[in-house]
Amino acid sequence: MSEIDLSQAVDLSALMDKSQEEKAKQLPQPSGYRILCAIPEQEKEYDSGLLKADQTLHYEEVLTTVLFVVDMGPDCFKDEKRFPTGPWCKKGDFILVRPNSGTRLVIHGREFRIINDDSVEAVVQDPRGIKRK
After folding, report:
1. CB neighbours of 109 closer than 8 A, spacing ≥ 6?
2. What pTM, to 2 d.p., does this model score?
3. Average pLDDT for residues 66-79, to the nearest whole number?
């Protein structure tokens, strides 16, 4: 099986190239049972090569079901009654959630979401090709 390069799917370099002190000010630290997620970059053109309209790209970003886990609050998946098999995801995972899940926020033009730990519906190894119906 060939190696999958997903480095272009979530490019946080604009935020991550800063010093540790600057990073701490840029990204919120999720509290409690919440998860900070980034929205993967959307394809700018269709398979045919036709460019997508800005409004189409905006709708795809807002209604995406695929998120990238950036950070997790200290209480994520700690409730043994609700999560008897342990955590459903970890930092660095691509996850599936319902469209419009969580609290939307924009940091330097990049959209993030803060979701609850029980909003995770699945973990996916390769999110390319997953589209909302």
Report:
1. none
2. 0.77
3. 96
